[in-house]
Amino acid sequence: MTHQPSGITLGPPTGHRVLGSRLRLLVHSRSVAVIGVASMIMLLMTAVSLATGPYPVSPGMLIEVLRGRNEGLASFFVLEQRLPRAVGALLIGGALGLSGALFQSVSRNPLGSPDIVGFTRGATTGGLVMIIALGSTSALASGGGAILGGALVACIVILLTLRHGAGGDALVLTGIALGQTLASLNDYLLTATTVESAEAAKTWQHGSLNGVTWQTVMPLALAAALLLPMVFWLARPAQLLELGDDAAAGLGLRVRRVRATMIGYGVVLAAVCVAAAGPIGFLALAAPQLARRLCHSAGITPIPSVAVGAVLLLLADFTAGRLLSPFQLPVGLVSSAFGGLYLLWLLNRTDRRPGA
Questions:
Q1: Is residue 1 domain-resident?
Q2: In sequence order, what are the beta bridge partners of 19?
Q3: Could you tell me if residue 286 is inside a domain?
Q4: What distance in Å separates the CA atoms of residue 265 and residue 344, rounded to the nearest whole number?
Q5: Is the pTM of this model over 0.85?
Q6: By the 8 A CB rule, do 28 and 8 touch?
Q7: Is 61 inside any structural domain?
Q8: 284: closest CA among 225, 332, 235, 232?
């Protein structure tokens, strides 16, 4: 039996390449092509992002800066401002794409992403509590609050949907309801504090890469190095889970344990991103669906979702930084605008399908 949802699968499918002798690692050729094209777009967009802006840098000077042969103003803009921002966009976009892929795989629903089902909203609430209620504006405090808030909301949603198996439409609807409640709490926190604290919190709440530095990127890179490889361990259980609970259980999968693990993994990924740059909406929703369509896969494709998510956030940040230059838009506003258009397209496509 052949499955293609993860882009990298276990078992002998037809038309796939088998790598290795003892470990049969099956590579879906179209997924590899999508990852390759996305990687080339990343390199191109990164180079354009480093060279353009209020202080333009010529291609020759950019090469000199990257080789360490230029220590002037160009070096400061490229190495200290633009490069950490581009690396942060790639890491955050990839993590959000993977988080969305995990949630959509668990819920078997194209709306199953951490921002739609309330987990990102919970992380936002945790960050706002640290900024407003405790008066701490440090990245460590807001980041810690975001991770704790996302984890707490995940626990509540799992407990409320446990009798339904903590998945499917119950997960999505419960998360949406809890997310709306938290949205009201967030608005109350903003109105019940001083103007200065509200402004600082509002800026963080929109989601922005404007303040990303190497101090932000280093822990983010460490978290990505620890978390992203886990997708190889979860790829096979995720495929079985997409067959349905009964079929997965019949194949020996401990459905509830695997689902809880995937939800926890996705929440941690989303919370780390919120901690680094604030909530960036709709990217985790769109990236897995775009990756699935590009790969022509019947299910969610986690690894291509990482690549597509990184490209989408890099493009959104490039647009945010140059649309109203020299004024810098929060990238969360741009990604939300793109996400709204994506939702309209998704609804229109669904309505055209027979029996939708």
A1: no
A2: 25
A3: yes
A4: 29
A5: no
A6: yes
A7: yes
A8: 332
Residue with tokens 């900024």: 131
Quote the Cα angle for 284-286-287, to 5°.
70
- What is the residue whose two structure tokens read 């494709």? 301
For residue 69, the one-letter residue type is R
How does pLDDT run along the chain (356 residues), one tens digit per residue?
A: 334 444 433 333 434 444 444 444 455 688 888 999 999 999 999 999 999 888 888 888 888 888 887 777 888 889 988 999 999 999 999 999 999 988 888 887 777 788 877 788 888 888 888 877 776 666 677 778 888 888 888 888 878 877 665 566 777 888 888 888 888 888 888 887 777 777 767 777 778 888 888 988 998 898 888 888 888 777 777 777 777 777 877 777 787 788 888 888 888 888 888 888 888 888 888 898 888 888 887 777 888 999 999 999 999 999 888 877 777 788 888 888 887 777 787 777 655 555 44
CATH of the domain at 88: 1.10.3470.10
Residue 298 lies in a domain: yes
271 Cα distance to chain centroid: 10
Contact by Cβ (8 Å): 291, 284: no
